Amino acid sequence: MSTGASLQWGGRFSGRPDPELLAFGSSLEDDLILAPFDLACSRAHVAALRGGSIVSPAIADALDAALESVTSELADGSFFAFARSSGAEDVHGAIDARVRALAAESGEWLHAGRSRNDQVATTLALYVRDRARNGRKLAVAIGRDALARSRSALEDRTLLAATTHWQPAQPVLLAFWLGAVAEQFVRAAARFARVENDSAAHSPLGSGACSGSSLPLDRAAAARALGFGTTTRNALDAVGDRDLVLDLVHACVRALVATSRVAGELVVWCSPTFGYARLDDAAATGSSLMPQKRNPDPFELARAAAAAGVGDLAGALATLTGLPLSYHRDLQTTKAISLRATENSLGTLGAFARAFGLVRWNAARLNAGADGAYTVATDVADALIARGITARRAHALVGGAVAAADASERPLDANDLRSLSNACGLDELQAPLRARESVEGKRTLGSTNPDALRASIEEAARELDALAGQPA
Ligand code: ARG
Fold first, then answer.
1. I need a labelling partner for 451 at 20 to 30 A (CA). Which of 167, 171, 311, 340 fits?
2. What is the mean pLDDT of residues 112-137?
3. Among 357, 457, 352, which Cα is nearest to 145's?
C-alpha cells in the first residue's frame, strides 16, 4: 500500500496522498472522544463476525483480546499518543491500526464486512445514549435543586414582584419563581430521556458502506451486545442518518436556552441596584481594577453559552441540507459540530448547577420590591369585577386611581378603595392592598397561591423522580 500502513485504504492508488490534504481531512482530534464507543462497537462487530462464522473462534478470541488491551490503553491514556502518531484519519482507523498491531494477522479480520460508515453511525448512537443520559441527570439535578429551594422559600413566604416587560407586574412568591425555574428543567429532562430512548432503539451496525453485506453478519447479536432493541431497517438510510445526534444537540441547546434565561435574570438580580440576590464568594469573581466588584461571571457565561449552542445547532443542521442520502464526507463536519456543542452544553449545565446552588436571596429587598409599583392594581380591579363591574370599567377606574396615587407618590390605600366603591355605587370594597394578601387571594390551579404552589411543587418533584429513575 503506497499511502502508508496506517490508512485503511490505498490499494488502488499509485501516488502518495498530499500531506496537507490528508491533515485537512483528518477528524482524529474531533473524534478521539468517541474512542470508548468505537471500542464497544468493535466488540459488537466481533460478535457479528463470530455469530455468522465469518471468522474462526480463535480469531474472534484474538480480536476480543486485542480490543480489551486497547480498552486498557484508553484507560491509562497511552492510546492517545498511539492514535496521534499512527497517521490514522480518525479514531476508527486508529483503533483498527492498534488492533492490527496487537493481534497481528488476526487483526486483519476486524474490518471484514464493516465500513467506517456504519461504524460512525453506531458509535454516534452509543455516544448519544451516554450523553443524553448525562443531560437527563443534570437537568433532573437542577430541577430538584430548584424545587428544594422553592420549598424553603415557600416556608419563608418570601415575596417577589413578578415582571412582564421587565416592569413590575404582580406579586408572587419567590418560591413560585423557583418553581417556574424547575418546570423548565422537568421538560429538559424529559427531552433528554426521549433522545436516550430513541438512541437505544436501532443498531446501524452491519449496514456496511450503504447497502448491507454479502457476508452473513449476525446483526442481531451485535445489536444485543450494544443494548439496542433491534437493527435498523435500511442500510442506505442508516449510514447517512444523523437524526439522533441532532436531537441530542437540540435537547442540549433547549436546556441551554432555559439556563440562559434564568442566568440572565439572576445577573440582574445580583446587581446591587436590584439587590434581590447575592452570589456566594465561591462563585462570584472580582475586577482587576475596581476593588468593590462582585461579578456574576458564571451566569454571564451560561447566558452566552446558549448563543453559541444555537449557532452550533443551526450549523450542524445546515450541513445536511441538500446532502444526498447515504454517507458523504460532509457528515464528518456534522459530527464535529455536534460533539463540540454537546460537550460545551453539558459543561455549561454542570457549571450552572453549581453556581445556582450558590445564590443567596435578600428577602428584605425581595419583599420590599413586591409591594412597590402598584403590583396589586389587578387584584383591586378583580375585586370590582367580582362585584359585578365590567372588566373594562374596572380597568379604567383602577388605572385612574393608580395615576392619582402615582402623582402624589403614594401607594394605593383604603381611601382609594372607598372612592372606587363609591364610584360604582357599591358598599364597602374588600381588595388586597399588600403583596402578601394578593398572593393569598389567588384561587386558580397553577397560581402563586401557597396551597396551589405546594401541590405544583410536589407534582413536579414526582415527575423528576420518574425521570431520574429511567428514560420516559
Ligand atoms: N472520518 C470519517 C467521519 O468522521 C469517517 C468515515 C469515512 N468514510 C469514508 N467513506 N471516507 O465521518
1. 167
2. 98
3. 357
Q: 252 with 226: CB under 8 angstroms? A: no
Q: Is 97 helix (H, G, I), strand (E, B) or coil?
A: helix
Over residues 389-394, the mean pLDDT reads 98
From 332, 334, 335, 338, give the residue whose CB has the most ligand 1 atoms within 8 Å, as the site to mutate: 332
Confidence (pLDDT) at 9: 85
15: alpha, beta or left? (left if phi > 0; alpha if psi -120 to 50): beta
Is the C-beta atom of 348 inside 6 A of ligand 1?
no
Taking the CA of residue 327 as reference, the ligand 1 atom at the shortest distance is 10
Ligand 1 pocket: which of 120, 127, 320 to mutate (most atoms <8 Å of CB)?
120
Residue 266, all three cell numbers: 439572576
Is the CB of 242 within 6 Å of ligand 1? no
Give the pLDDT band of residue 363 (cuts 50, 70, 90).
very high
Q: Note the pLDDT of residue 331.
A: 98
- Indicate whether residue 91 lines ligand 1 (CB < 6 A): no
Confidence class for position 50, pLDDT limits 50, 70, 90: very high
Residue with cell 455536534: 338
Q: Distance between alpha carbon 202 and the CA centroid of its chain, in Å?
A: 23
User: Is 120 close to ligand 1, i.e. is its CB under 6 Å away?
Assistant: yes
| Strand locations in 197-261 (E) | 202-203, 230-231
Average pLDDT on 272-279 reads 96
How far from chain centre, in Å, is Cα 423?
A: 54
108: Cα separation from own chain's centroid: 40
Please give the mean pLDDT across all residues of the chain: 96
List, as one string, the DSSP characters of 139-160: HHHHHHHHHHHHHHHHHHT-EE
123 lines ligand 1 (CB under 6 A): no
Instruction: Give me the pLDDT at residue 356, please.
Output: 98
Split at pLDDT 50, 70, 90, the class of 232 is: very high
pLDDT at 7: 79
